[in-house]
Amino acid sequence: MRPAKDYHPPMSLGAGLRFCVAAGLAVGLSCVQVRAAGLPARPASACAGTTGPDRLLSLTPEGDLVLSAGGAARLAEIRLPDSGPARPEAEAWLKTLVDRPLLVTTGPERDRWGRLPVRIRIPDPAGGTDAAEALVESGLAMVDPGTGETLCRPELLALEETARERNLGLWADALYKPLDANRIDRLQDRFGTFVLVEGRVKSVGERRQRVYLNFGGHWAEDFTIIIPKRTWKTMTDRGATAASLEGRRIRVRGILEPWQGAAITVVVPEMIERLDNARPSR
User: For the TNase-like domain, which residue ranges apply (predicted)?
Assistant: First the structure.
């Protein structure tokens, strides 16, 4: 999400939970106990926003929000399941917020569909509930920074990991379980969809404009992660190197592309998670 400059979310949901981020890829960190405050700083402009009271008027058939003051909006840094039993459950949860007083933090600009990225907090005597955190924690949404180049709240990955391990919500559906990077046939069946893919990096190719993480011996036929040089610089600034990635088992998320065998382009470093000491996804 894009929190307001003076808004600091409580750490009760995400603090101390286990999660893996690209910042630790090169220094031997895999799944470790960290707090959000210990992560590399996010660009202030990308995560800044304006916070104020608002109300949810309705939910569109596509799952978008219609706010009284903000108009068309979407919950930032998460996505609802496209189908399956968890989809109507997620929509039903969001509809319980209609006409309730909410504290809404809006992002700096609308997306190409005219939606404001927002973070919603539901006030209550205990300090309030963050809508995105509640949905992810219940397995009713997954982490997705969308078109942004920054994940402002990497602690959401910890909540998602716990929900996935417990097979909650969408994670009980085989459609959303991480795919095997070596099963190129299954990957090709999912072109154009948002997926999680797990596998071991066989080689790393550094070129002038991009870096390629190859998962097979025939890069033109197998799965590849494409990292633009701008994103690669962010990763190397955090300590990642080609040598530190080769041979590592990782998880990546994004839209599957029909490039060579199959590929995912990553512009947000946290979309690559190291899994060396984690249990394989079921």
Answer: 88-173
